[in-house]
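Sample A.
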Amino acid sequence: MKSIPSEKPEKLSDTEDKQFPTLSEKEARLFQLANWSLGILAFLLFLSALTYVYYPDIGAHIFDASLKTLPPFATLILGYYFASKNS
C-alpha cells in the first residue's frame, strides 16, 4: 500500500493572511456601543408593538410615537459610527 505524501499548502504572506482589517480598541468599543444602542431601540419598538397588540386604544399612541422618534435615533447612531472621517 502506497502512502500519499501530505503536501502542506503554501503559507500565505502576512498581507494575504488577513482578510479583514483589525479594529483598534476604540473602534471595537464604538461598534459594541452602536450594537447595544440599536438593540435597545429595537427592543423598545418591539415593546411598543406588543402594547399596541394588547391595549389597542392606548397602544396606538405609544406605537405611533415610537415609530416617529426611534428611527431618527437609530440614524444618528449609525451615522456617528459609519461616518467618514475625511468629510
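Sample B.
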Amino acid sequence: MHYVKLEYIICEVLNMDTEQTPVMESNEQMSAPEPVISANEVVKENVSKKAPVIGILVILVLALMCGLTYFVLKDRGINLLSGTNVEDVAKNEDTTATENDTNKTCTTDSEGKESVLTLENAGWALFSMPEYEYSVELPSYSISQKLGTAQQNVSSFWTSGIVVDTTEHYISSYVKTVNLSFAPEVIPDGVNCGDGCLNEHSINVAIFENKGDIKEVSALKDSYTQQWTKANKEDSEAGVVSLKTETATKWEKSVVKYTLQTPSMEYTGYLVLGTDYIYDVKGSFSSTPVESYEISQKVLDSMKFEE
C-alpha cells in the first residue's frame, strides 16, 4: 500500500485553481453597441412629425364649419355680418341679392357682360332674370299673425320664383311665369278662407316671346282683347265676366292696362311690349295692413323690362 503525502495533494489542488486561462489577444477594435430605441420613443417621434398636419386639418375643418354655418343662417334670414334679420331671400338660381346700397355691378346677359343696376329701394333684394330682360326688387318687410285653431304665431314675408301657370293666356308664344308673393310661411290647421283673408299679396308675370308680329302697343291691345273675347264669348255676353282695356303709362312706358271682372273678384293687369318679349303683369293685393299694401305697390313699381 502506497501513501501520498498530504502536502503534495494540496499543492496539486492549488496549482489547478491558480492556473490562468490564456487570453487571446486581438488587434481588432471592438465596436460600441448600438443604442436601443424604445417603442415609446418611436411613438413620440411619429406624433411630433404628424402634429403640424393634424393642426392644419383641424383649422380647415373649423373654417369649413364656420362658412357652412354662415350660409345656412343667411339662407334662413339671419345675416351675421349686418346683425339684421332679413326675412326674405329670393330663392331662385336667377336671383341676385343686393343689400344696403343702391348701385350694384351684376352680370346681365348670357355673354357675361356686366352693367350697373340701380335699386330704387336701398336695402331691398334684386330678383333678376337677365335672359328675359326682367328684374324686380323685394323688401325685407314682414308681419306676424296669430292664425289657426291654436292661434299659432306665423310670419309673412316676400318670396319669388318660377311657378307652373295653368291659367289661360291670350298672347301666343308663352315662355314661363314668375310669381312674387307675400304670404304666411305656413298655413296652420283651422284656417279656411278665400284670397286676401291672410293679408297676402300675389303678382304673376307671364313672359311671352315676341315673334315680331306685334310692334305697337295699340296692336297689342287689340290682339289681347280679341283673343280674350273669343275665349270668353258666352260668359261675356251673359255678363258673367267683363274686360276693359286702355292705353296707359306705367314703368315710364306706354302699356296696355286692363281690368278683369269675374264673379269672385276684380283685378288689374298690365301688358308690356318689348322688342324680344311681351310681359303680362297681374296681381291681387290685400288692402290691410295699410303699410303692407303700400309696400306691395312699391314692389310692383320697381319692375324693369328690357333696360
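B remarks: Residues 76-305 form one domain. Residues 1-37, 79-100 have pLDDT under 50 and may be disordered.
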